[in-house]
Design goal:
5% of the residues lie in helices and 54% in strands. It is mainly β. This is Phage tail protein.
């Protein structure tokens, strides 16, 4: 039985004749805890490292070789080129419905032909310990009130086109940006402020309370922006533990 398809970089696995075999099961994350054995003391001393571990998500595949690929090797290389990434990227699995994974390929595709047209195989991704909401993949306009439906805080990315002094207010906390030149991104997950890309550092512009980045909480959130700007959009990045 075929479970579902995989979408990466806006391309579907069905373009390569690839389907995820049934059953598909998510690998669950665990909190990172350091256990220390103490002589003469029964029971390890536990230290909570306040983070959750990445997971390795292996997908078992069923493959029907498309006509445009003459050999299994050529298809395998095409699949590897499609999935390869130097950074985390959205990993969309159709049966997850409202959520997607963020990961990178940690095991190249392994294809085992059954005959000239059909094969089985596997591929693995190293994934962050959260599922993110699929409607947060793209930027959208920022409303004045946002209702969080997940149970843990979100770390949004704000994108602003403007100049001069801008003040972002989230849930009553003011995040001031001094001397914005045309465009700025505030990335709460990476805890980084930049212009067009990560290499264009704009961290010195920030005056944030306790040097913390804005977060969105479960339930009601209020957001506003003051200053000279023409675009104000965001990715809320609502998430849940796997």
């Amino acid at each position: 039985m075929l479970a579902n398809k995989l979408i990466v970089k806006n391309k579907s696995s069905t373009d390569y004749g690839v389907f995820i075999q049934y059953p598909f099961t998510l690998v669950n994350t665990l909190p990172e805890i350091t256990a220390v054995q103490i002589p003469g003391h029964s029971g390890d001393l536990l230290t909570n490292n306040t983070r959750f571990q990445n997971v390795t998500q292996t997908l078992n595949l069923y493959i029907e070789k498309p006509q445009e690929y003459e050999t299994w090797s050529s298809l395998s290389m095409a699949i590897q080129d499609w999935l390869y990434s130097f950074d985390y990227q959205p990993i969309i699995i159709s049966s997850l419905n409202d959520y997607y994974l963020e990961g990178y390929m940690s095991q190249a595709p392994v294809i085992t032909p059954q005959d000239d047209m059909v094969a089985t195989g596997s591929v693995a991704f190293n994934c962050k310990p959260y599922l993110k909401r699929i409607d947060d993949i793209d930027f959208r306009s920022v409303p004045s009130t946002v209702i969080g439906i997940e149970t843990i805080n979100a770390k949004p990315i704000f994108h602003i086109k403007g100049s001069g002094v801008l003040t972002l207010t989230v849930n009553g906390q003011k995040y001031v940006l001094n001397g914005v030149d045309d465009e700025i991104f505030i990335d709460g997950e990476k805890e980084w402020i930049y212009k067009h890309d990560l290499n264009q550092n704009r961290m010195p512009l920030a005056q944030f309370p306790n040097n913390d980045f804005p977060e969105l909480v479960p339930g009601k959130n209020t957001i506003s922006l003051s200053g000279k700007y023409s675009l104000f959009e965001y990715k809320p990045n609502w998430r849940r533990l796997i």
